[in-house]
Write a structure and sequence with these properties.
Blueprint lengths: L3 H4 L5 E2 L5 H5 L12 H4 L1 H14 L3 E3 L7 H4 L3 H19 L4 E6 L14 H13 L6 E7 L2 H14 L4 E5 L13 H10 L4 E5 L4 H14 L4 E4 L6 E3 L2 E3 L4 H13 L2 E4 L7 H10 L14 E4 L4 E4 L6 E2 L8 H8 L3 H13 L4 E4 L8 H15 L4 E4 L3 H10 L5 E5 L3 H14 L2 E4 L2
Parallel strand pairs: 1-10, 2-3, 3-4, 4-5, 5-6, 6-7, 7-10, 13-14, 14-15, 15-16, 16-17
Antiparallel strand pairs: 8-9, 11-12
Helix pairs in contact: 4-6, 4-12, 7-8, 8-9, 9-10, 10-11, 11-12, 14-15, 15-16, 16-17
Length: about 425
């Protein structure tokens, strides 16, 4: 079987469908975590995988969604390894050629400042799951509704393995994630942190995803992926139902394939019958080749700014050079003053805020990430990380919620050697000085 990367974007690969709703019909207890079935009833999980393989899925998603130490404690890694092993056994027994994906979803707790989970704690939790996923063929990040959490997951992946990464986020019909990101911001962050395919899953049916396709196609420079639900959910007698038939699902999802999808499957409410119908419906469809967008974009958690069109206004007031009041505020740890300077510039029309806290008597390695965290918790503008200290720069870029702009790098070898690795690791755009 060819390497997954060799086929991605060159042919239409079908992913499987829902696991949770399938498990519910095969003995998953009310309130029980689906991952428990990997240990309690592996034959049930293996059977569902086998049904999807027989239906024609090229990618089988292991029953690992939502598994982490937060929910499974010390057993988390064993649950993940068991899930991947069961999926592999099902594929091998089927006689079909299919890839096994480690299915990785949100942790179930929102990151600060919206929630109470520290960014580095989220990275560590994802790292444990990914380290246990090394026997998979690819990592599938899906159902992310918070751009910051997706960044934590992607960083963890880049730090512990080299498996292909597919990143799918969940949007509402207006084209926004739960915490405010639009399609361009989500794609910008995912691509800059190494995702080799990007797209949507859950939340919407194929028709609703089709409405967001042009925006996704314009933003992405990598292959596109879609796992829609079997239509929008309907609540009947307190039970959530998905009522789009396999034939109706396949007909609508074919439009996503014709629009350029390279990976296509199903999410909530879909079954092996939906995937079998989809396989029949997309015979002969070849994905549109992915093309680099040529766009230079930075973003915060909620706002993207593109360079190359209208002038981009960068507010430079958060820089202590020649500003005694800011110097005093930094020395006194007065972040309120820094936030007020940000507000003034935003109100005056700035598109981006420069953040520079460099003073001889300031611990810039601690102060710069703190200033970035405080500003991004309150104001939606993208930030420009401005420092001559590469360690301070790296710490700020790491916890930045979005894709930052780094100010700056010059053509001097020492500057390039210090700054380029930071920008590459954290997906930052760069101001390059002549």
């Amino acid at each position: 079987m060819k390497n997954f990367r060799d086929r991605l974007g060159r042919e239409l690969l079908l992913m499987d469908g829902a696991m949770g709703t399938m498990l519910q019909s095969h003995g998953l207890k009310l309130g029980e975590l689906p991952g428990n079935m990997n240990l309690r009833a592996p034959e049930v999980v293996r059977g569902i995988h086998a049904e999807y393989a027989a239906a024609g899925a090229d990618v089988i998603q292991a029953n690992t969604f939502g598994v982490s130490r937060l929910k499974f404690g010390d057993a988390a890694a064993n649950v993940v390894r068991a899930g991947i092993r069961i999926a592999r056994e099902a594929v091998d027994a089927s006689g079909c050629e299919a890839y096994v994906a480690a299915d990785i979803g949100p942790l179930g707790r929102l990151l600060k400042p919206v929630g109470d989970l520290e960014f580095e704690d989220a990275v560590a939790l994802f790292r444990e799951v990914i380290e246990a996923s090394r026997e998979a063929d690819l990592l599938l990040f899906e159902t992310f509704t918070d751009l910051y959490e997706l960044k934590a997951a992607l960083l963890a992946a880049r730090e512990v393995c080299a498996l292909p990464i597919v990143a799918m986020t969940t949007f509402d019909e207006s084209g926004r994630m739960l915490t405010g990101a639009d399609v361009l911001s989500a794609v910008t962050v995912a691509e800059s942190l190494g995702a080799e395919a990007v797209g949507f899953n859950c939340g919407l049916g194929p028709e609703q995803m089709l409405a967001l396709l042009p925006e996704l196609r314009a933003a992405a420079g990598v292959p596109l992926a879609f796992n829609p639900n079997a239509g929008l959910p309907v609540v009947v007698d307190g039970q959530t139902q998905f009522r789009v038939s396999p034939e109706g699902f396949a007909a609508a999802a074919r439009k996503l394939a014709e629009g350029g999808a390279a990976l296509l499957g199903g999410c909530c409410g879909t079954t092996p019958a939906h995937i079998a119908a989809l396989k029949e419906a997309v015979v002969g469809v070849v994905p549109s080749p992915a093309k680099a967008s040529g766009r230079t974009v930075i973003c915060s958690y909620a706002r993207a700014v593109e360079f190359g069109g209208a002038p981009v206004l960068i507010g430079e007031r958060i820089n202590p050079t020649g500003k005694p009041n800011l110097k005093r505020a930094l020395r006194e740890n007065d972040m309120g003053y820094v936030l007020r300077e940000g507000a003034k510039q935003m109100d005056a029309g700035a598109d981006v805020l420069d953040v520079n806290v460099g003073l001889p008597d300031i611990d810039e390695k601690a102060m710069l990430p703190r200033a970035v965290a405080e500003l991004q918790a309150v104001w939606p503008l993208p930030l420009q990380i401005d420092s001559a200290d590469p360690v301070a720069m790296a710490r700020a870029a790491r916890l930045y919620n979005g894709r930052p702009l780094i100010n700056s790098v010059s053509g001097k070898r020492a500057s390039m050697d210090a700054v380029f690795p930071v920008a590459q690791k954290y997906g930052a755009a760069l101001i390059a000085l002549t």
